[in-house]
Request: fold
Amino acid sequence: MIIKNKAIVADDWTVLRLQENEAAESVHVAAGKIIVPLKVWQAQRDVLQQREEIGVWLASDERPEALKEDIKKFTVIAVDFPKFSDGRGYSIAFNLRVRLGYTGELRAIGDVLRDQLFYMQRVGFDAFAPRPDRKIEDALKGLSDFSEVYQTSFDPKLPLFRRVQRKGSQAENSQ
Amino acid sequence: MYRYDEYDQQIVDERVKQYRDQVRRRLSGELTEQEFLPLRLQNGLYMQIHGYMLRIAVPYGLISSRQMRMFAHIARKYDRGYGHFTTRQNIQFNWLKLQDTPDILADLASVQMHAIQTSGNCVRNITSDEFMGVARDEVVDPRPYAEILRQWSTFHPEFAYLPRKFKIAISGGQEDRAAIYAHDIGLAVTKNAQGEVGFRVLVGGGLGRTPIIGSEVCEFVPWQHILTYVESILRIYNQYGRRDNKYKARIKILVKALGIDEFKRQVEADWADLKDGPGTLTSEEVNRVASFFTDPAYETLPDHDSKLNEFKADSRSFSHWLQHNVKPHRVPGYAIVVLSLKKPGNAPGDATAEQMDFVADLADRYSFGELRITHKQNLVLADVRQKDLVSLWQEASAQELTTPNIGMLTDIISCPGAEFCTLANARSIPLAKLIAERFEDLDYQYDIGEITLNISGCVNACGQHHIGNIGITGVEKKDHDEWYQVSIGGSEGNDSSISKIIGPSFTFHQVPEVIERLVQVYLRERTEDERFIDTVRRIGHAPFKDHVYATDFSVQEEEVADKHSVAPAQYDVPYFSPRF
Ligand code: HEM
Ligand code: SF4
Reply:
């Protein structure tokens, strides 16, 4: 199960992670819906791009620009959070959405916990695979922690000061 | 000052709710301490020696009397009757219980305050010049921009898990009073030749293990673009700042590694895509926020009050206070008053609940209901009529807030040190007290003149020892005893510099004598009107070093046993600290 578009849904994608003894060039990518590491995509691009549906995932130290030419080929792009405190994935997501114009599913994988989900959705993630040892229903609640935000990111497109009319000090809130 | 509208209030209220639920999950075991840690840290909650320490944000150091009374309330109800004002213009309470903290945050929210992002690897409270809006040398009032930056950085989704903490300071005077050279980003709001407002942007300053003075990344960013420009700096840092080593994770290390030119190139390449986008500031927004910082109802007054001179002639103490703790105001007939939290014998920056209530009353009666907290751990009443100075002084003296030592040797900046902080190698506050007592004599202090003394209990430099004229750092030796390194030649402001260590370290009781010897060299060598720092710069370290190490120290060392003498709090909740 994953969270997608703010709902808990079944998921039939598999994330391929390279084992120590596997190489990107030679690892076997099973048939079906697979999200492959960027390195595997790059090494086996000729074959993999024949597939109807393919996903790719980025590690936190990889660059989203590496997908620039191919961005339209993916049904899903995932970003891995090796540790929840590693915040690079937020900028990767922002760059994928805002700079590279990616419009497909953007999924957070790895050490994904409830209290990050609100921020994640704002930088462009629309799918989340919370850590399996946690209740996914709880994680879902994290998406609605706040009903208002100040600054623009991927979401919302405008900062608060461009979205609403805010009052200055002459208004009734000054006493 | 700024007042919340319904949006600000809603965000802060929802934060309290979110945090309350996080504490509930922690107490029920749903969250492990490892998982709770970054959550509580984004909320200023540290586990320290006695219990949980909560750091509350005082945005750019500006606070209303009502908010100050809430601090007094928190000190009484949840703590032990006092709080500690910090070098980043915040306040810390040291003796809290985890299960009380959601209520404390709710109390704070009721007076438009919070503890959001006062710790953790995120953008911290924005600090500023304590004389903002009233300084004579002000070019542009930084307050509206400080508030705009506060809102922009609050819960910024992309920058909550940076490689390390991120501190922004902003100043608007000709003289920098916000230590902008010692911050991750330092902003000087200024005007260009055409009179347009913009920012000189410094980046990569910081203290800690590797002290570095910030470098200029852009000479002039027009005000409209400041948020997007800062965003690009943060994005480059978030992606490329080191995450493998905590001590190399600050932006200063990245800037050094890339070189300022390459760093600038990367920032501006990122910025090219944001410039003129939706994050660009509008004049409506700046005007809206600025409307909260218009002048209070100043009276038209003569610039010098004759009664003041009479009283000055009568009272030496008052005259000293006037000379050292009262600063010129840009409006005739008004003055800026610095209330000293540095009475020798007291912990620098500590204030009791009674003092907090008291200064709140003073603010109501004498200064339009507002106060400022300074990065030197004092308090400021920014708008006092000169004709009120005598009565203000009399009242404040009764509460021990008028020690006339601002800018003098006993105006010591000190971190909490070993009695409160798990990272400490040595005590800071007792050393500050010892030094202050040794140099209590005012005539001697005035003879020495302008000097800054900063103490940190360890290399993290919370007491900003690198930018003190004299800096003292607790260092660890094998036996876990306290040792102190002494350095000289640091300064903040427009001529910021990093101090250098004079030599092998000293014991607790040797330090006051070391300072005495440093002062002796200065008094011997100074030319007329030369400040301590000027003399150090002119003659170099050698004469100081030679004199300090020339003879042995004949001081009594006490038993080390009382090093952590303060009684620990009682725990009835799960807790975690590297020390336990
Ligand atoms: C208790 C009162 C404290 C105060 C007033 C305080 C304040 C400060 C200040 C002003 C700095 C300056 C940093 C700079 O300019 O670069 C600093 C640095 C630092 N503080 Fe604190 N802090 C306090 C407690 C703590 C605690 C409890 C911790 C950790 C648990 C801590 C960890 C650090 C570290 C690691 C640095 C150095 C960061 C770096 O430059 O890499 N501080 N703190
Ligand atoms: S300088 Fe060291 S001892 Fe002092 S508060 Fe900071 S971390 Fe603690």
Summary: The interface with chain B takes residues 84-88, 90-92, 94, 98-99, 113, 115-116, 118-120, 122-123, 145-153, 157-162, 164, 166-171, 173-174 of chain A (CB under 8 Å). Chain A has six helices and eight strands. The longest helix of chain A spans residues 88-99.
